[in-house]
Design goal:
The chain is α/β, with parallel strands linked by helices. It has six helices and eleven strands. A six-stranded parallel β-sheet has the order 5-2-6-7-1-8, sandwiched between helices. The protein has a three-stranded antiparallel β-sheet with strand order 10-9-11. The structure holds zinc ion (ZN). It is an enzyme of class 2 (transferase).
Length: 196
């Protein structure tokens, strides 16, 4: 039976590189893995998923894909796997639709995303994925102190920001992964502190 996966990690944990590698592995075996992302995330321009390490790939917006599937379910017959990047930005209903696709079409759906926002609270999509998924896996990375990074701090002028909208798209310069202690204290690495 296919499964619904949620692979989460903080900013800078190579989630996107992982997603692109899984896609590559499917392609190498001549299998069709569909790469999706939410429309909201236009950080890397239109319909491109790009990793920090330089690899990138074309993708389809989740919204467009689900609309196409609604119009023609046979699309799913040619699909070996669905890979979703930035899955934290999914709506509850979208996460539920992907769970349905796993169960009724036996297609694995692998979601990559952040678990919590810069306030340390669950994103809508992440919450529903945690509730629904068969497999939850953490992609680990470390805080500047060497402990496991679990929180996404939004930073500006060498300081940790506590207020603002949940979604404010930015690259690596706006966010940094911290351990709980340093997230709570708001203590950044010397490099981040000096980066004003
Ligand atoms: Zn730390």
């Amino acid at each position: 039976m296919a499964k619904l996966y949620f692979r989460f990690g903080v900013m800078g944990s190579s989630k996107t590189a992982n997603a692109l590698m899984v896609r590559y592995n499917y392609a190498e075996k001549e299998k069709n893995a569909i790469l999706l992302k939410p429309k909201l995330d236009s950080r890397d321009g239109e319909k491109i998923i790009k990793s920090r390490i330089g690899i990138e790939s074309n993708c389809i917006f989740i919204e467009d894909f689900l609309k196409d599937v609604e119009d023609d379910k046979t699309i799913l017959h040619h699909c070996s796997c669905i890979i979703i990047d930035e899955a934290q930005f999914m709506k509850t209903k979208q996460a539920e639709t992907f769970a349905y696709i796993v169960d009724y079409y036996n297609i694995p759906v692998i979601c990559y995303g952040l678990k919590t926002d810069f306030k340390g609270e669950l994103f809508e999509g992440s919450r529903r994925l945690i509730e629904l998924c068969d497999v939850i896996e953490e992609i680990p990375t470390v805080c500047w102190c060497g402990c496991k990074a679990k929180f996404n701090a939004r930073i500006s002028e060498g300081k940790v920001l506590r207020d603002g909208e949940q979604v404010q798209l930015g690259g690596n310069e706006s966010y940094v992964g911290l351990c709980r202690k340093h997230y709570m204290e708001g203590v950044l690495s010397e490099e981040n502190r000096n980066n004003r």
